[in-house]
Amino acid sequence: RKQIRMEAAMLGQFQEVKLATCFRGDEFGVSSVVFDPQEDLLWAGTYGGHITSFMGLELERYTAFQAHHSDVRQLLPTPAGILSITAEELRYTTRTGLPMFTMKEEPRLKEMHCLLYLGEESVLVGCQTGMITTVDLTRASVTSETSTDAGICLLKASEHYTCSADINGQVYVHDPHSMEVVASFTAHTSGMSDMDVVGCYLVTCGLTHQFGQLCVDCQLGVFDLRTLRPLPPTTVTMLQPLLLRCMPAWPSTILVLSRMGEFQFLDLHGLVTPSTMMVHQLSTAAEGRVACCVDISPSCQGLAFGDSCERMLS
């Protein structure tokens, strides 16, 4: 069974409150989870193309529908609905599950991997072909495109910049108007697994090679968006960080999550507190499942995790 798990409390004092199963929860793992900033909803997409939304801390099912026929690579709530992508298909759906439009077989939207909402009903789509494409959601059409040297796997926005990361571990900082690259740096030598932005910091986790073996890089890349220069990396010693999320309520604090369901809060300035020394363990790991995705609520009072068995823990 595949589930979503949710936890809620103050920083360092989290309590599991609900374990929920996604639509057709006996078949596929959870590939994406995201809190809805417009409504009291939590969205989950699966490797089978299903999308489910849940209401409140009890994760009462609100909508559930088959949106695609392959893995949902990212979900993105907008004021008008929910965007979802697979490698070859972009779909815009209302919160009640009614389709607004679907874009597929568009040559500039191939091997899609990530989304970034720009406001005013437009979205950036990052593709592993190396394209960053702008889509107008009111007309369901491509309006512009930017070519990069390698496949784009992550897109994030700061106050002044648009940031992208490629599959080789390189990070690019773009002018948000022209998409011209104003700075870049190598965050990880063997690939990128996650990236987030909060305040003036961009933080990454990824992969490296040790003794000829591909492994998780225990050093987080940190980039100062004020000076456009890399900062000394933050070393994670108590788990292997594969995913991360910044905490907007605590700008120097980040959550790191391992594949085995361990998560920890770290301070980018190296401050050591009882909260940063504590490693939490998701109960799903005891049942042989692995963590696949994570998100933090806009208030920073709730965490949601999706595992390999289509369950969400909240």
Short description:
By secondary structure, the protein is mainly β. The chain is built from 1 helix and 29 strands. The strands form 7 sheets. Strands 19, 20, 21, 22 and 23 form a 5-stranded antiparallel beta sheet that branches.
What does this molecule look like?
The protein starts with a strand and ends with a strand. The chain has one helix at residues 274-277, and strands at residues 2-10, 13-21, 30-35, 41-46, 50-55, 60-66, 74-77, 82-85, 89-93, 99-104, 112-119, 122-127, 131-136, 141-147, 152-157, 162-166, 170-174, 181-186, 192-198, 201-210, 213-216, 219-224, 229-235, 243-246, 253-257, 262-267, 279-281, 291-296, 302-313. The strands form seven sheets. Strands 19, 20, 21, 22 and 23 form a five-stranded antiparallel beta sheet that branches. Strands 1, 2, 28 and 29 form a four-stranded antiparallel beta sheet that branches. A four-stranded antiparallel beta sheet has the order 3-4-5-6, with no helix packed on it. 1% of the residues lie in helices and 58% in strands. The chain contains one helix and 29 strands. With 314 residues, it is mostly beta strands.
